[in-house]
Amino acid sequence: MIKRVEINYRGIFQKNLAKRIGGDIVIIASRMGKVAFSNGRYSDSPERNGIPCKYFAFVSPDLEEEELEAECGAKLDIDEADVSVVLDETMVKGVEPWGWHGVRPINEKVTEKGCLLVVSHKEPEALLKFIGKKPFDYRIAILDGDASLAGLWVFKDDLTHERVLGAIAAVDPEIISIDAVEDFVKWKYKEERRAQAARQAYDATLRRISRVTPELGIEWPHEVPILPKWHEFGEGVVVPAVERGFEMGPRGQSRNTMFKRGTTKTLRPVVRFDLCIGCTLCWLDCPDECFDPVEGKLYDVNYEYCVGCGKCAVVCPVPECIVMVDELKFEDDSSPWEHYRRDPQGYIEWAEEKKGTDRYAYPHVTGTGFEIKAGSAPPAKVGK
Amino acid sequence: MAIAQEPQIWEREDLLTGCQAVSQAVRLADVDVIAAYPIRPYTEVMDTLSKIIADGQLDAEYIIADSEHSQFEIVKHASAVGARSFAGSSGTGWMYGFEALVVTASDRLPVLFLVGNRALDDPGAFGVEHNDALAVRDMGFLLMWATTAQEALEHVLIGYRIAEDKRVRMPMALAMDGAFLTHSQHMVRVPSPEAVKRFLPPYELGDRRLHPDNPISIAPQVNEDWVIELRRQNWEAARRARGVIKEAYQEFNSVFGTDYSNPYFTEFMTDDADYVLVGLGTVAMPGRTAVRRMREQGHKVGYVNLRWFRPFPTEELRACLGRFKGVGVIDRDFAHGSPDSGGILLHEIRSCLYPVKERPKIVNIIGGLGGRDISIADCTTMFERTRQAVESDSDDEVVSWIGLRE
Amino acid sequence: MAEAPVIVFDKIRTVRDTPLEEMFTSGHRTCQGCESAMVMRHFSKAAGPRTIATGSTGCMYVANTAYMTTPWIIPWMHTQLGAGGSSAVGTAAAIRALRRKGKIADEHINAIAFCGDLGGGDMGLSGISAALQTDYDLLIILYDNESAANTDIQATGMTTYGAQTTFTPPGTEHRIMQRRWKKNVAPMLAVGHPTCRYVATASATYPPLDFHNKVRKALAIGGPTFIHTFDPCPKGWDYHPQYSREVGELGIKSGIFPLYEIIDGKVTYTYDARNKERTPVREYLMAQGRFAHLIDEDIDYIQSMVDTMWNEWEVPGLAPFKGGLELAKV
To answer: Does 3.40.50.720 match the CATH number of domain A3-212?
Structure first.
C-alpha cells in the first residue's frame, strides 16, 4: 500500500512550511514503523515568490524503501495524491507552475476516496465554485486558518505546521495517526502547546470533511498539452520573440501567451478609476507589465498576467484608489476598465463590494505578522 | 576581342607554417570576426591574421580577448548575429574556454576553431598531444585532423562550407599537431579569392539570425519537457553532416581540381595488406615511410590516416579495417582508467569494428605524448607488435606504450 | 568648474512621455515584486526595438525565458554566466563588421548585455573589463540583487555585510558568516578604464525615469558603457513584495547605495547623500528579514562604514581613498 501526500504551497512564502510538513510526515511515519521519504518537485525550482509549488511525502506500511522510491521517486510530478494539502486557499483557482501547460486544476491528482485539505476560513461551497469536477467521489476538508506566509529567513511560527499535521491525521489516519503526531511534536518541538494545536486541529478537521460528488465543482476542460516531437520544431534552440504589438486599450499590449502567471496571485488590485489622477506610477512600476494604458489617462489591469505583488497599491498616491483584494472574490479575469466604462456607477459599487472594509496590512518582513485594518470607501467621482 | 582568361585557381605558392596556412584560408574565407588570445602553439595563426588585417588584406574585426572563455564567447555571439567567425587555442587554453565550446555546439553555431594540439596541463608542456581537441568529441562538434599545411589550408574552406550548411550548423575544430604542423614550414599552394568564392557560399543564418528584423529568443531556459528532443536534433545533425561532407568534397574537387576521393581517411598501400596502423595527424608521415620501407622487404603492411573524427566514419572505416588481419591503433592521447586502459582512438575503433564477424586483432600503442617523437623505427615496431598479436592470437597485451623510458 | 559634456539623446522628460510600448512583456516567471524584472522592462523600453540583447545565466535568464517561452519582444540571446562582457563585444563586433562589409543594412543597432551579481561582479569581471577597453558601442548592465538569486540565494561579491544567505546563515557559534564588504564595482570599472566614457549606478524605479535616461545616455555617448542597478529582491532580502520601491528608496536615501553618473571622468550625483540628512541604515536593514539576526554592534558597524563612505572618502560614495595625497617618505 502506498499513501501519497502532495502539499500545494506558495513558492518562497510557504517553502519552509511545506518542507517541514513534508519532512515531518516522513519522520512520524518512520517512528510508526513505516517506510517513507519526501521530496520537492524539482522543476518548481528555482522557486519564486508566489509561484505555485509542490512538496511530496510518500508513506508505505509494507513496501521496501527501494520499491517505494521506484514507484514514487525520481519523477517530475506525483501520479496521484491520497491527500492533497492546499496551504493557501487561493490556489483552488488552479495553478500554472510551468510554461505550455496552462492552468491546471488544484485537484488534478486527487484519487477516488482521496482528500483535498484546504487551509481556509471558507466553507467548501465557496471553494468548489472554482474547483474542477472529477468523475468520481472524493473528499474536501477544511482546516480553519489564514494562509501562513513568510520569507526565506524569518519563519512565521503560527502553529500552521503542527495544525496541518493534525489535519492530515484526521483526513487519512493510514498515513500518520494523531497519537503519533502528538508524540512526535512533543518530542521534537518540546512545547506542549504545539502538540495541543495538532490535536485541536485534528478534532476540528474531523468535523469539516465533506464528500464531493461528481456533479460538484465546475467544468474544467484541461488537457495535458501535446508538445511537439523532436523533428516538429526548429533547430538551434530558437523560439520566436513575442510579436511586437501595442495599441491603447484593454489587452492592447502583446504578451507571452505560453505562460500567463495569473495563478501566482493571492490578492488582486481593485482600481477606483474615478479617483485616479493619472500619475502613471502603477503602470510604470509594475514588474509584470500588467497595466494597459487606456483613454482618459487611465490604466486597465490585465488580471490574466497580474501576479498580485501589491506594488501598484503601495505606489499609488491616492488613498483607496488601488486596494489589494482576496483573489477568491473574483470569478474571472475580465477587464475592470471596460466594466467601468460601460457602467461607472455600477463598477464603483462592485469594486467597493469586493473591497469590503478589510485592508490587508503586511509588515516589511513578511513572516513577522499580518494585520487586517479597516478601510473606507470614498464617494464616487463619476463624470470625470 | 580579348579571350577570357582561364579563371585562376591557385594564386601562388608560399613557404608557410601550418598556422600561416590556416591564416591565409581565413583571409580567403572573408571571415568577419576574429577573437585572439595567446597560447602556444596555435598563436601564430593570430599573429599572422593581425598583420593580414593591418595590411588591409582582410576586412574583419579582430578582438584581443581577456581569456579563452571570453574569446570563444565573442565568436559564438558574433556568429549568432550572422558574422563568419574564427578563433582557436591549444591545450589548457582550450580547456579554459570549454564551457563556451559546449554551448556553441548546442546553440548550433558554425564557428571554426583551430586547435594547435598541445599537452594538457599540469605540468605545463608545449609538445603535441591530442586530448585537447578530442575533449569536444561528444558535444556536437565537427572534428578533423590535418596532416599537412596544404590540407590545413584547404580544410578551413571545406570546414566553413560544411559547418554553415543549413543541414549541419555545427561548430568545427580543425586540429593540427603542435610544433610538427603548426610550426613546420612547407611550400603551400594558396588559392585565388575568385576560386574560393566559387566554392564557399556566404554565411546565411536565415530565420535563426539574431537581428532586429528577425526577432527571436535564442536558448531560452527549458525544463524536462524539452532537453531530450533538443539532443535528438543535434544527434541528427551530426548524422546529416556525413552526407554534407561528401557533397562538400565533391564540390571542392571540382573547383580546385584536387583529388579528395575519400573525405574521411586516406589509405596507403592497404590493398593487400595484412596489418595496418591507424592514426591521427602527423604520425602518418613516419607511418607511411615505415610502410614503404617494410614493403620493400616484402611485408604486407599499410597505413590508414584518419582525417574526420567527428562525425566518425563508422561504415566506411568498418569496411576498410574489417579486411585486415591486424590493426594497430596509434593513440597520441591518453584515457586513464578506460577499458584496458586504451587510448581514445582505440575505443572508437573497437566499437566501430564490433559488428564485424571476422574481426581483426586490434592492438593499441600509446605514444608521442607531450611531443615525444614517433620515429619511423617506432612505426616498424608497432607493425611488429600488431603482427605478434595476430600470430599469437593473444588478447593479453592489447595496450602498450612506445618511446617511453621504461 | 568644467561642465559635464552635452550628450545628445532623446531624453524622457516626464512620466507622461515614457514610451508606452513594451519591449519586454508579461509572461515571465519572476518573483512578485521583482526589481530586476523592472530593469529588464525599462532598459529595453528605453533602448527601443533596434536592439540586440544578450543575457547571462541568472535570474533574468531562468526566470524570464522559462520553459521554452520568452517575454522578449526584442531579439535576445542567452549567454554564459561569466560572458556578459564578451557577449556584448561579440554582438557589437559582428554588427560593425557586417555593416561595414555591406552584409547587413548600415544602421545603428544597440548591443546590450546584462548580468547579475556573479556575472557582473565576480565571474564576469574580466570579460567586462576587456569590453570597456574596446571602442565598440555597447552597454553592459549589472543588475544587482545582492545574491546569487537564481540558485536560491547565496552570497556573492555584491552581498551586503551581514546578510543571511544559504552560504552565510547565522549560527550559534558565528552570528555573522557574511563578513565581506560589498565590492565597489562601478567605480572600479571607471577608474580602470579611462577611455570608457560612461559609468553609472541606477535604480529602475527611483527617481522615476532616471534609469531610462541613463540607458539612453549610455547608448548615445558612443563606445562601451556600464550601468550598475540596485535591485531590491523580495525573495533574497525577505520583505513583502509590495515594498520593493520603498526598500530601494531606503537603500539610496541611507547612502548605502550611491546613485551617480561618471561621464568622461566627471562625477554627478543623482542622489547626493553627502549633504542630505541620510536615513539611518537601521531603517533599511530592519525592513528586511535577511538582516533579522543583526544586533546593534553590527548595525553600528554598517552605519560607520556608510558614514565613512560619505564623510571621509576622497570621492564620496565612490572612491575609498582618504586623507588627501602625500608623497611617500623615503
So the answer is: no
